[in-house]
What we know:
- The chain is mostly helical.
- The chain has 2 domains: 1-79, no CATH class; 87-204, no CATH class.
- Helix content is 50%, strand content 4%.
- It has 8 helices and 3 strands; from the N terminus they run H-E-E-E-H-H-H-H-H-H-H.
- The protein has helices at 4-15, 44-51, 66-78, 88-101, 103-116, 129-136, 140-161, 166-177, and strands at 18-20, 28-30, 33-34.
- The chain has a 3-stranded antiparallel sheet, with no helix packed on it.
- A hairpin with a 2-residue loop joins strand 2 and strand 3.
- Helix 4 packs across helix 5 and helix 4 (88-101) packs parallel to helix 7.
- The N and C termini lie far apart (36 Å).
Amino acid sequence: MAEFKISYPIIERNEGGYANNPLDNGGETYCGISRKYHPSWGGWDFIDKIKTSGAIGNNTVFSSLASLVEGFYIKVYWNKLWLPYFKQEFATQLLDFAVNSGKGRAVKELQKILNRSGFRLAVDGSMGKLTARAVQSVNQSDLAKALFNARVAFIKEEIKDQPHFAKVWKSRLRYLQGFLSSPSTQVALGVVALLTLGLILKSN
Length: 204
């Protein structure tokens, strides 16, 4: 089953360090953790203390906060999404989708995919027992590809409203595509082939 230590470096690479982009809905963030949405995270006191000596440079990483960051992702994402109970390939795709676009959005897209293949899940964005069992009952490699395809379509729409993040999001999708296995020779979940990223990745 999936191991956090295998998927987490992907999140580290994609989220980077400190950022305070006024165009980002999450506002001030550290390693992808938004102060706006997670004001009680234990690392903010340290960051505020550092800021008293001057502005923090973009993408700065503090090694002393590493355990707090990992603990956050294990508690808020890895465990709440039931990822230890799934295969690595699928867990990695769901984790990065959830971190980038929100747990609710990622799980809703997953539930819609599962429902198209015959399940009758509530599309509520919550990873409960029924959704988890549905995931476990199907080919998770094909499910990972279907989820990636859904993410490509979602990001395509998001870019229309937030074009300033187009380059970053496209790069992230390219990177995540590399963690999908070769297309299965069996047709499952209606997945015939991976969507061509060229639909939205034609330009940088």
